[in-house]
Structure formats: structure tokens, C-alpha cells
Specification:
The structure holds 2 protein chains of 2 kinds.
Chain A: H1 2-30, H2 70-92, E1 94-97, H3 103-107, E2 115-118, H4 125-132, H5 135-138, E3 141-146, H6 147-150, H7 154-164, E4 166-169, H8 176-187, E5 191-193, H9 212-220, E6 224-230, H10 232-236, E7 248-252, H11 264-283, H12 286-295, H13 308-321
Parallel strand pairs in A: 1-7, 2-5, 2-6, 3-4, 3-5
Antiparallel strand pairs in A: 6-7
Helix pairs in contact in A: 2-4, 9-11, 11-12
Chain B: E1 6-9, E2 17-22, E3 25-28, E4 35-39, H1 50-59, H2 67-70, E5 76-82, H3 96-110, E6 115-121, H4 130-145, E7 151-153, E8 162-167, E9 173-177, H5 178-181, E10 185-192, H6 200-206, H7 210-213, H8 219-223, H9 236-251, E11 255-262, H10 283-298, H11 301-309, E12 317-323, H12 325-340, E13 341-344, E14 348-356, H13 369-380, E15 384-385, E16 390-399, H14 412-424, H15 428-434, H16 436-440, H17 443-451, H18 459-466, H19 468-473, E17 476-480, H20 484-489, E18 493-495, H21 498-509, E19 515-518, E20 525-528
Parallel strand pairs in B: 2-14, 4-19, 5-6, 5-10, 6-7, 10-11, 13-20, 14-16, 14-19, 15-20, 16-17, 17-18
Antiparallel strand pairs in B: 1-4, 2-3, 8-9, 11-12
Helix pairs in contact in B: 1-3, 3-4, 6-9, 13-18
Classes of the chains: A alpha/beta, B alpha/beta.
């Protein structure tokens, strides 16, 4: 009995040793420089020495010019567009309205640069807008993306720039460099998708609009196309771990340009009102939305000014009215009984 | 800068000329030295900021206050619009009517107007299908108003919803849609493709009853309408309509007329050869022509028809004006003539016309034999100002397959008209006296008109009357390529080829007649000196 027990322990020890050896070999293969020092690895910094920082190439300084050159554009157009559209269709099943309002812009030769200003609830919004704007605009379309989120790592930034033609922009205070570069892009015929809310909705309701789209339009003369997106918050809203396929609606509004003597703040308010009216139109109908717009009583995108639980309560009702209320038929899953 | 219209004197080096043949084309050689071809002016440039122009027109109307000043809370506002018969082919979305109506509705919303009704001004035309309403008005207006019962189609046979406005000094009764009659303001949204449309004709025919329309839609009136596209002084029809318009102005609701004109850019890029002059066809145009004609010949008729009716035309707005009906219409006519007028010297012995696949009464439908007559003699023959292109007693030659084929949903009374009336008489006055009332008062036709998508029972008579002047004016009418028994039923002469037709015509106009070909499309009005 004791002989049998001793041989089992020996076998276990041998197995453990073998496992350790295999693990060490694997670690060495995966991280070949771990046990190597400088110069294989970065130098350690001596105490009391001031090292001059190299200029950052991440965040707002991430270089995306290559993504607007012919090879990257060709990859997007011929390789990535079709899978992107298929992905959007499978996840978001978009219903698109209001493209006819862009007819005058599409008739112009050359095609003018346009600033698309949608509300923002989800990471799905950007692929959705790219997939649903008329193809003429898609060919020269840049997306303003949060520098601190999309461009904080080189690989992430490169993928965002290649797949979405994303351009880094600070959320809070836009630097002169970013705005000058965006102006230059618009002046050279690039259309822009910019989310005036500055980021995804934290609670499912919209946020106040920031003045970026209005500022760029006022400086470049490019028209702003208000866009309302409904339903993406329920598909992959902020805080959701994985996407949950559903239905969405994208409504394009009539292009807006600053009126004579209109300052950026007022123009921004007009853009917000236009997106708000489109939101009402998406949930009710054109006439109801126009009447309420004239009275200034379109339901606000920012939701009711209640305490937090009542806002959430109202949000559930609000979503039932929209596309999120129309859930797709789920395949019934039976338990596996073996 | 678009080139103006042009008259080509045909010589030996002139290439064959394009003729429509219903849902196909052919190239025909015209006799050199005595033939001419009238080419339409090239399309005028479209307005760049169409929505801006519409808004400007509504805020700066002619001889009326700006539209917002005429709108107030609690008022009854009725918006009427031209039906599916315009424009041809249907225009690419967004349709001009949608753009104008959205601008009007924006102003109505701003003024707090709740009671808005939108009415399709059909007259005795067929009711529009949902997809046609959506195309003309856009999904936004359709979805918002139709479900509330605020968007509907005029019914000229609904006694409860018609109201007599008054009577002219010629005894003509003006009876129009009751909702429009009771409104504080009627906004009429028009598309003016040809000069005979628009003005008082929009409202006094589009929203009128059969009782009202029968005043002037008669064989006698149309025989005395010597220039449908020219001045009112030569058109008995328009004189009657203008008398009714005066009754409307004096005793009816206030009317805010919005008229628009389109350019003649009628066919998309894949049919670009249609709009070109033959000697300017590129290798691509020639290849397209060959491919299209061979392809069409191999297709069944239904498929060809479907293909043509699915065309969405790129034509665009050249002008928009609003305000007082008569003042607005004068400006509209200037724009129409600016686009369509071609000066032509003198009349001709033979007029040749290629008949296309569509006329105002068969959008998305069959061009039946009665409509071939209507399109040839009612519309294309009448595309003149001053004098007809063909001399009195001359010959009109049309090219069309003229199948004995009808759409029973849209044109049920046309079938009986063809089978019962035409074997009896082709004289518009005689058929009006003998047969019109029977068709107009037939309960089954009335039911189909009111509840289905059928033209009114009397409509084939009106289509026939439309060609009354041409029929009376021409010494002989020949249809090339048509089904012979069907052509004979219309009272015309069939011919296999254009050369045969010239041979047949020589009995009337001699051995060396002059020939004029009207190169349509695009639309043109020959200003015959």
C-alpha cells in the first residue's frame, strides 16, 4: 500500500517538474527579451537625471496622414467597405431616411465637403454612419475620433485610422493644431463625421452639443448635415460588454449653413435643435416633429430633468417608442438534453 | 450655355434620324432636299439652391402677401398638388412637389396651423397608388398625413364633398372639392411641363367635378381649340377655364398658386443618345443604341414596358414662382417657352412623329390604342404656337406598334370604348352626343374610379377629344408599324415602313411633299411663322 502511494507521489513530482520546464520554455519563446538587459531592453533611468521627453506620437499627435493616401483609401474602398456594411447590417439592421434631403449636395460637381453631425450612443455609430452615408461622400470621409480613447496605443490607432479613416481630436479643449488640420481637410474636399456631444452617452440620454461642428462650418463654409441615430444605445451602449444585435434608424436632415451674422454658439444651438427635431421625426412623424419644432417643444435628446432613477425609467419608455423597442425575433434555444 | 432649338435641313449626308416606336426606337432616313428635323433646345441649367429658391418664392410672392403672413392659428389650410400625370418620366427623388410642400408645411407649422389637408388634384384621372404618392410627396409627408386621414385624393363623383362656387356668364357651373371650397387658403403646388397646364386649369380641373369638367371637355370645344400650347385667344378650352377661374377668384376660396418649371433633361445617362443630335453620337452612343434596341427587341413587351416606366428622369427645376394665379402663370409660361420654343419657318405637307412609351394618362401602365391617338394628335400635333406644323389637309405619320392591349385596372372604360364606340364612330362630336353620357354615368366605372385605380368612365372620350383638332386638320393619318386592324379601328391607315407611309401619303400630298419631323424627346414647341 505504502509502495503504491510513494510511486504516485514521484509521478506527480515528475509531472509538476515537466510542467514547470514547459512553462519556462513557453515564456522564453513568448518574451525572448525578458531575461535580457540593455540594450535589448529599454534603459533604466538613473536617479537625479532629467531626461528630455521625446515628442509624443500618440493621442492627438498620432499621425494619420497615411490613412488618407491612395493605398489606404483603396484598401478601405475595395477590401473593408463590404465587410463593414455586412457587419453593420447583421448587428444594426439600419433603416435609412432623409437621404433625399442631400440631393442638392449630391448634384454638385465637384462634390462639396460636408460635416455630418450625429448624436452618439455607441461605438456602432461610426460604422453605421459610414455604411449609410451616400457612397459619393464615403469615398472622402474622415471621422473625428477621441484622441484619448482611439489613439492611446499605436496598434489601436493604426487600425482606427485604416478601417474608419479616424482622425484624432481632443474631447474637451480642441487644440489649434487639430482644428487647423480639420479645416485643411475640409478645404481639400474631405467630408467629416463629428459627434457634437463629444462622446458616447453615459446613461442612454443625449448630451449637450459642443461647438466643434458649428465652428468648422463657420470657418470653412461647409454645410452641416444633422443626423439622428436611434437604437444603437441598446446594441452596444456605453458599459455593455458585448454587442446585442438589434434594429436602428438613421435619419439625415436638411443641410444647415450659418446665417448672416449668426455666431457659432447660435449656429450650434440650431444644429442641436435640428438633430432634436429629427429625433422627434424618427419616433413620431414629419408633421408632428415640424409643429413641435416651430413651438420649440420637441422632446429633448438630453431627456427629462429628473433624478437618476426617473431618468432611467423614462429612458425605458423612450426606447420602447424607437427602434430599440422593436427587438429582432430571437432563435428559440432549447436546453441540450444530451 | 445650352444651345437653342434648331431646324435641320436634311441632305444626302444627314444620318438616319431617331424615331420612337413605343417601347423601342428605330433610325429612319428622311427624303433629302425636302425634309427638315426640328430639334429641341438643350436643357436649361437647373437652379442650384432649389430649397432656397422655393423659400424665396413663398416669402416674395407676386401680387399677394408672403405665405407666412396668410397663415394663422385655427385656419383651414388645403394644399392641392398635381397628380401622377406629371412629370414624365417621373423625376428622381426628391420630387419638386415634395420640396415645395415641405417648405409650405414648415411655414404652416411655424404659424401654428393645425387643420391642414393635402389633396391630390386628380380631376377624372385615376387614383394614385401608395408608391406613387410616396414618390411624389416623399415618405415623410405620406407617413405623417395619410394615416391621419389628412392626405387623400380628390373624388369628382362624391356629391357630399363637392360644392358649387358659381356659374359663368356662359352658363358653365364651377363645382369643386368641398374642403377646398371651405378653406381659408388653398395652396396649389403645380409642375408645368407644357404651356397648356397651370394657371386656373390646375384648380378648376384638378379639384372639379364631372359636372364642371363636361362644360369644356367636349368634342366641339377641342375642335375649336386651335392652339393648346399657344395663346389663350386661340384656345376655346382655355377661354372656358379662365371664365371659371374668374368665378373662383370672385366667389371661391383664396388661392396661393405655386408653379414650377422643369428643364428637359429627361433621360438618364444610359439613354443619353435620345437627347443628342444624331451626327453628334459618339462611339459609345452608337454602341448603346445598338445594345438597347437589340436588347429591347429580344424582350417581351411587358418587360420592356416595366423597364421604361421604371426610368427616373434627372430633370430639375428651372423656376419657381408663387402668388396670384394669373400673374404667376404668365411668368411660368415665359420659362416654359424659354425652354421649349423653336422658331420654324412655314408649314409642311407631312408631319412625322415618333410616339413614345408614355403619355400623361398611362404612367406605369399600357399605352393603349386610344392613348396612341391622344399622344399623337392631342399632344405632339399640338406642340406649336401660331399655326400647326402640318398644313391643313396634310398628312400625319406616326410610328408606334399600336397593340390592342389595355390595362384593365387603370383603363377599364377604354376597353369598352374601343370595342363599342370606335366601330360606330370616330367623330368626337357624334360620339359625345351618342355615347358619352352612357359611359360617364355607368355605375361600375364610377365605382372603379372612386374605389380602385381606374380612370373615370368618360375619360377615353376626353382622350379622344384631345386629338379632335388634329383629326379634323389632317387629310390622312398613317401609323407605321402598328397592328393593322387596330390602326384601322382608330380610323387611321396602317403602313409597314416609313417609305410605304410616304407612298400612301402621296395620294394626298403628291409625289414630292415637304416633310417635317418633330424630334421628341425632349419637349419642344414649334413657333411656326
Amino acid at each position: 500500500m505504502s509502495v503504491t502511494r510513494s510511486s504516485s507521489i514521484t509521478r506527480l513530482r515528475r509531472a509538476a517538474k515537466l510542467g514547470d520546464t514547459a512553462s519556462a520554455t513557453l515564456q522564453r519563446a513568448l518574451h525572448p527579451t525578458r531575461n535580457l538587459g540593455f540594450p535589448w531592453r529599454a534603459p533604466t533611468r538613473p536617479k537625479g537625471v532629467v531626461v528630455v521627453d521625446e515628442p509624443s506620437t500618440l493621442g492627438a499627435d498620432f499621425d494619420t496622414a497615411w490613412a488618407r493616401k491612395a493605398p489606404a483609401r483603396a484598401v478601405r474602398r475595395w477590401v473593408l467597405t463590404a465587410p463593414l456594411q455586412a457587419l453593420v447590417r447583421s448587428i444594426a439592421n439600419p433603416e435609412v431616411e432623409g437621404i433625399d434631403r442631400l440631393a442638392d449636395l449630391l448634384d454638385q460637381d465637384p462634390l462639396p465637403a460636408v460635416i455630418f453631425a450625429p448624436n452618439h450612443h455607441s461605438h456602432v455609430d461610426t460604422p453605421l454612419v459610414i455604411a449609410t452615408v451616400p457612397a459619393e461622400f464615403r469615398r472622402k470621409l474622415v471621422v473625428a475620433a477621441a484622441a484619448d480613447y482611439f489613439f492611446d496605443r499605436r496598434l489601436k490607432g493604426t487600425l482606427a485610422a485604416l478601417a474608419l479613416n479616424a482622425f484624432p481630436i481632443e474631447r474637451e479643449v480642441t487644440s489649434r493644431k487639430s482644428s487647423d488640420e480639420l479645416r485643411r481637410l475640409i478645404d481639400t474636399g474631405w467630408s467629416l463625421v463629428i459627434y457634437p456631444e463629444g462622446g458616447r452617452s453615459p446613461d442612454g440620454w443625449g448630451q449637450e452639443f459642443k461647438g466643434g461642428a458649428a465652428y468648422l462650418s463657420a470657418r470653412t463654409g461647409a454645410p452641416v448635415v444633422p443626423v439622428f441615430i436611434d437604437g444603437t444605445g441598446s446594441i452596444y451602449g456605453k458599459g455593455m460588454k458585448r454587442p446585442k444585435p438589434g434594429n436602428t434608424k438613421v435619419v439625415f436632415g436638411a443641410p444647415l449653413v450659418p446665417e448672416e451674422g449668426e455666431n457659432t454658439r447660435r449656429f450650434n444651438a440650431r444644429i442641436e435643435a435640428a438633430v432634436t427635431a429629427l429625433g422627434d421625426e424618427a419616433l413620431t412623424d414629419f408633421w408632428t416633429a415640424r409643429r413641435r419644432a416651430a413651438e420649440g417643444t420637441n422632446p429633448r435628446l438630453t431627456g427629462p430633468e429628473h433624478s437618476s432613477w426617473r431618468r432611467q425609467w423614462a429612458l425605458a419608455e423612450h426606447r420602447q417608442l424607437g427602434k430599440a423597442g422593436q427587438r429582432r425575433r430571437q432563435n428559440r434555444r432549447w436546453p441540450d438534453l444530451g | 450655355m445650352p444651345r437653342p432649338g434648331f431646324v435641320l435641313e436634311v441632305d444626302r449626308s444627314t444620318p438616319p434620324i431617331l424615331f420612337w416606336r413605343g417601347e423601342n426606337f428605330s433610325l429612319e432616313r428622311l427624303p433629302a432636299g425636302r425634309s427638315r428635323v426640328i430639334y429641341p433646345p438643350e436643357p436649361l441649367p437647373a437652379i442650384k439652391d432649389i430649397d432656397g429658391a422655393i423659400r424665396h418664392a413663398l416669402l416674395n410672392p407676386y401680387d399677394q402677401d408672403p405665405l407666412p403672413a396668410q397663415l394663422f392659428p385655427g385656419m383651414k389650410l388645403t394644399i392641392a398638388f398635381d397628380d401622377v400625370s406629371l412629370p414624365l418620366p417621373k423625376m428622381r427623388r426628391p420630387d419638386v412637389r415634395q420640396r415645395v410642400m415641405e417648405a409650405v408645411l414648415d411655414m404652416a407649422a411655424a404659424a401654428g396651423v393645425d387643420d391642414v389637408h393635402i389633396i391630390a388634384a386628380l380631376g377624372l384621372h385615376r387614383r394614385m397608388h401608395e408608391y406613387e404618392l410616396r414618390h411624389a410627396l416623399g415618405d415623410r409627408i405620406y407617413d405623417a398625413f395619410h394615416s391621419r386621414g389628412m392626405l387623400y385624393q380628390h373624388d369628382a363623383e362624391d356629391p357630399d364633398n363637392l360644392e358649387v362656387i358659381g356659374t359663368t356668364d356662359h352658363g358653365e357651373v364651377l363645382e369643386i372639392n368641398k374642403r377646398a371650397a371651405d378653406s381659408d387658403l388653398v395652396v396649389y403646388v403645380n409642375i408645368n411641363s407644357v404651356s397648356m397646364d397651370g394657371g386656373w386649369k390646375s384648380l378648376t380641373t384638378g379639384l372639379a367635378s364631372y359636372r364642371c369638367l363636361r362644360n369644356h371637355h367636349t368634342g366641339h370645344t377641342l375642335q375649336h381649340t386651335r392652339s393648346l400650347m399657344g395663346g389663350r385667344e386661340h384656345s376655346a378650352l382655355h377661354q372656358s377655364i379662365w371664365r371659371l377661374g374668374k368665378v373662383l377668384r370672385d366667389h371661391g376660396p383664396k388661392v396661393f398658386q405655386i408653379e414650377t418649371t422643369l428643364n428637359t433633361d429627361m433621360f438618364p445617362e444610359q439613354f443619353s443618345f435620345i437627347n443628342k443630335r444624331e451626327w453628334e453620337w459618339s462611339a459609345k452612343d452608337r454602341a448603346t443604341y445598338l445594345g438597347v434596341t437589340k436588347g429591347l427587341s429580344a424582350m417581351p413587351v411587358k418587360m420592356r414596358r416595366k423597364m421604361f416606366h421604371n426610368i427616373e428622369s434627372p430633370h430639375q427645376m428651372t423656376s419657381v414662382q408663387a402668388g396670384d394665379t394669373e400673374r404667376v402663370h404668365e411668368i411660368t409660361l415665359d420659362w416654359v417657352y424659354k425652354q421649349q420654343l423653336v422658331p420654324v419657318e412655314g408649314q409642311t405637307d407631312i408631319l412625322t412623329l415618333g410616339i413614345p412609351f408614355v403619355c400623361p394618362y398611362n404612367p406605369d401602365s399600357v399605352m393603349n390604342p386610344v392613348l396612341v391617338m391622344c399622344m399623337g394628335l392631342g399632344y405632339l400635333f399640338n406642340m406649336y404656337r401660331n399655326k400647326p406644323l402640318v398644313r391643313e389637309g396634310g398628312v400625319i405619320i406616326m410610328t408606334h406598334p399600336t397593340y390592342r392591349d389595355f390595362n384593365p385596372v387603370h383603363h377599364p372604360s377604354y376597353i369598352d370604348f374601343f370595342e363599342q364606340v370606335l366601330p360606330d364612330t370616330t367623330d368626337p362630336v357624334v360620339m359625345g352626343q351618342k355615347w358619352e353620357q352612357q359611359f360617364a354615368e355607368d355605375e361600375w366605372y364610377r365605382h372603379l374610379y372612386r374605389t380602385g385605380n381606374a380612370y373615370h368612365g368618360v375619360h377615353p372620350f376626353y382622350a379622344w377629344y384631345w386629338g379632335a383638332h388634329g383629326q379634323q386638320h389632317a387629310g390622312k393619318i398613317i401609323i407605321v408599324g402598328g397592328d393593322a386592324p387596330t390602326v384601322r379601328r382608330l380610323g387611321f391607315t396602317p403602313a409597314s415602313t416609313l417609305d410605304d407611309a410616304f407612298e400612301i401619303a402621296s395620294d394626298v400630298v403628291g409625289r414630292a411633299p415637304t416633310v417635317t419631323h418633330l424630334h421628341v424627346p425632349s419637349l419642344l414647341v414649334a413657333d411656326v411663322q
